[in-house]
Amino acid sequence: MALPARGITALFGPSGAGKSTCLRAIAGLERDSTGRVSFGHEVWQDSARRVFVPPHKRRLGYVFQEPSLFPHQSVVDNLDYGFRRAGRPVHLDREGMIDRFGLRGLLDRRVGTLSGGERQRVSMVRALLSDPALLLFDEPLSALDAAARADLLGCLERLHGTLQVPMIYVSHNIDEVARLADHIVLLNDGHVATQGSLQDTLTRVDLPPALGEALGTVIEGSVSAVDMHDQLIELEFPGGTLSLPHHDEKPGQSMRCRIAARDVVLTRERQVSTSALNQVACRIVGMADAGASSQCLVQLDASGTALLARITRRSWHALALSPGDEVWAQVKAVALGA
Amino acid sequence: MTLLSDQDLQALGLTLRLAGVVTVLLLLVGMPLAWWLTHTSSRWRRPIAAVVALPLVLPPTVLGFYLLMLWGPDGLVGRAIAALGLSALPFTFQGLVVASMLYSLPFVVQPLHNAFESIGDRPLEVASCLGAGPLDRFFTVALPLAWPGVVTSAVLGFAHTVGEFGVVLMIGGNIPGQTRVLSMRIYDHVQAGEYHQANMLSLCLLVVSFAALLAMSLLRPRRYMRD
């Protein structure tokens, strides 16, 4: 597989699909694996030509699922381990990163006294400070509780905007991927099922059933209004406007949300007496089997934004739907929490 | 009456010197050996581990006997040493050092091996991804994390060398200032019916052993928390 040299590329797939092994091979931690790894114009590993560049010469920033901090060192010593070996590069904003990840007050602490979320933040900044040419994140949030995960997702989202080097992000959590990734590689059973831009890939209807839960649309829009009374925000995107639960978003802020294919209900007419807040006018583009025989996937076009709905085959016939029809897609706002 | 005679003091000094030299040398030899045993995938790993562990089960007199045969004027090593123009090993301090190293090797290598093994691969992988080469990783990550094992190794190696008897009997003899160590001296006193002197020296050994174990538990840092 060839991965883009910029932005965040997600390696996504079910457990056992080979995501972590793939990442370890890229890092050079699987010395005996066969194959070829190259980065830019450098060949890092080629088992046929017996080329092997050891990990410490690959300029990586690897973040493991477990924070794996050095327990015999303080937080600041952990942070500086790679930074010192990279020659304390001046182009890295060490102080800024420490502040952005909320580590200022932890610097002198011993690693054993940190919470899981704090440790993983240290581990990420430690990797960023080693002046990497490539960042490799191996399910960095999956061992954390929900609060720490939300906190770190925010950190990563902000990091995304300022990231100068490419990142490969392994995850089996589609919400994480939807929020962070620009590009996605779907792995299934040790093979690449498909890859491409996030939006195009997740609205494909020909993916293996094991990846079915990941299907859906990732919408990128901007917050056009905040309703403090109902604790809702309005998210404007090319296909219309969606109401979403309010967390701490501010007007004008751009954000992503995901609409899973299974959370979309189709109606012929716009409903008036319904608890669903979000109804989007769409045109049917096509229909495909969704693997499970009772269901089908309907491809929709909402003024340029592709949507996917998983409905029963019976409903498809009962509503007499066919490509070209104008329909309304009901999306429950709570289902969109990013 | 003084507590220890000059000869007893000489034996005590010699014993501590021997144990000190052996411990330092064993740590230098044992660390690479234990590291190799931990990380190699060579098919020689098991045979070599067995050879290293052999003194654990082998009677010291047997080890001493074979060393004497090997190092003697007709032995393989003895002839090689003579050919190189070096002085013979049996019945010398140097010979005692080498014999003690062989005898105490497993007591140093085993704790180191266990310590290196319990670190696991992850901290070393992390260090290598942060740009640390092999030696750098060893000294900044592996050694600090294995420190309790290093302390245990040193103390066991030291105490075990202090207490040896069978090997000394075979290869060292009983030469004052050269090879007459504490355990030999105690044996001599008992043979001569000098139970008071034997008691004094035995107490010395007891105190040294106790102090070594106490030092071990004091020098061990508290266990690091793992995530």
Overview of this structure, please?
The complex is a heterodimer of chains A (338) and B (227). The mean pLDDT of chain A is 88. Chain A starts with 7 loop residues before the first strand and ends in a 7-residue tail after the last strand. By secondary structure, chain A is α+β, with helices and mostly antiparallel strands. In chain A, strand 15 and strand 16 form a beta hairpin. The longest helix of chain A has 17 residues, at 146-162. Chain A folds into two domains: 8-209, Rossmann fold (3-Layer(aba) Sandwich); 216-336, OB fold (Dihydrolipoamide Acetyltransferase, E2P) (Beta Barrel), CATH 2.40.50. In chain A, helix 2 (75-85) runs parallel beside helix 4 and helix 4 (116-128) runs parallel beside helix 5 (146-162). A six-stranded mixed sheet of chain A has the order 5-6-7-1-8-9, sandwiched between helices. Chain A has a five-stranded antiparallel sheet with strand order 14-18-15-16-17. A four-stranded antiparallel sheet of chain A has the order 12-11-10-13. Chain A contains eight helices and 18 strands. Chain B is mostly helical and 227 residues long. Chain B has a domain at 16-171: MetI-like (MetI-like fold), CATH 1.10.3720.10. Chain B contains eleven helices and no strands. Chain B is globular.
